[in-house]
Amino acid sequence: MGRQFFICLALIVAVLCPPAAAQKYAALFSFGDSLSDAGNLCADGIPSYLATARPPYGMTYFGHPTGRVSNGRVAVDFIAQELGLPMPPPSKAHNASFRRGANFAITGATSVDPSFFEAHGLGGTVWNSGSLHTQLRWFDELKPSICSSPKDCRDLFRRSLFIVGEFGGNDYASSLAAFRPLEEVHTFVPHIVNSIGKGIEKLIAEGAVELVVPGVLPNGCFPLYLAIFRRQQPEMYGPRTGCIKDLNTLSWVHNAMLRRKIAELRKKHSGVRIMYADYYTPVLQFVLHAEKWGFLRQTPRACCGAPGVGEHNFNLTHKCGDPGGHACDDPSNHWSWDGVHLTEAAHGHIAKGWLYGPFADPPILQTRP
């Protein structure tokens, strides 16, 4: 067999078996909060109070603020690029095309609706710009801009990737900001996780068969909480991480319950692939093994904040984007951008772990058995 035969064989394989990233998805639809927001909160103008829409946000990749709460791209952007798709535009963007995807995430989003917080006396501490179920309503309203008929929609959604979250971080933040006892906050976990489960099932009913469902981050490692809950008893903190153990336990319980919910849904919807995406483990890795990921080994510390103000570089009166807040010289060697959110570098590592492993179960680009 000559060289021409092998060239022809290679061409046939390339046509019939293209790389997974090139063949996998027709569109990407994303839901979530500030970890995924691509500009929905700013689509109709920048609110005067919104520091996250001012420099130095967006400085690394876009060169200007975009409404993303980072110095550059967020995980969903990296995933879209790796799949050969455009970064999904914010769903509230004007004159955008949504045929290849849309990003419904919005800063401040929660899993449960505002009525839940009001019923628990937390209406004054939650800022809810659009819960998961509000975003699903936006999705329904946008469908005429995405596809031309119910059949066309179902066909597109069957060939699309849906990222549902992260949800939960703001739900718990509302309770923690009110200094509610952690025992009480733990009672909210089933409601928050069940709400996510209902959202997943709504998308499955629309035709979605490939869904990524992220858990929450280890909140006890973030400079925001480390600054608010100032160091008192040494036993409150992990001896290796310096993170607040009780807050990380809350995050772990949420993620364990979410994984159980995903297992239930997999059994109920056998033709659907639901992937659990892990934020918790990579952030702990960034703290424990910083050098492995290209980060500085240091106490959890914001890149962008008030230099010289506290060991975590975070102060509520001098936040990133506020007067007195400044970015570090090299955001690529930090995992925490502003004390609450991640840097572009951290998002990139996490996105790769979701796509190829080990930070997803199963990885997005793992071939079906």
Structure description:
The protein has about 375 residues and is α/β, with parallel strands linked by helices. It has a domain at about 20-220 and about 240-280 and about 345-360: SGNH hydrolase (Rossmann fold), CATH 3.40.50.1110. Helix content is about 40%, strand content about 5%. The chain is built from 13 helices and six strands. It has helices at about 5-15, 20-25, 75-80, 115-120, 130-145, 150-160, 170-175, 180-185, 190-205, 225-230, 245-270, 280-290, 345-355; strands at about 25-30, 100-105, 160-165, 210-215, 275, 360. A six-stranded mixed sheet has the order 2-1-3-4-5-6. α3 crosses α13.
The level of helicity is: 25-40%
Label the CATH architecture of the domain at 21-221 and 242-280 and 346-361: 3-Layer(aba) Sandwich
Number of continuous helical runs: 13
Major sheet: arrangement of strands: 2-1-3-4-5-6
**Spatial shape:** globular
Protein structure class? alpha/beta
Order of helices and strands: HHEHEHHHEHHHEHHEHHE
Q: Mind telling me the CATH superfamily name of the domain at 21-221 and 242-280 and 346-361?
A: SGNH hydrolase
Spatial gap, N to C terminus: 33 Å
Instruction: Return the average pLDDT rounded to an integer.
Output: 90
Key features of this structure:
369 residues, alpha/beta, 13 helices, 7% strand, disordered N terminus
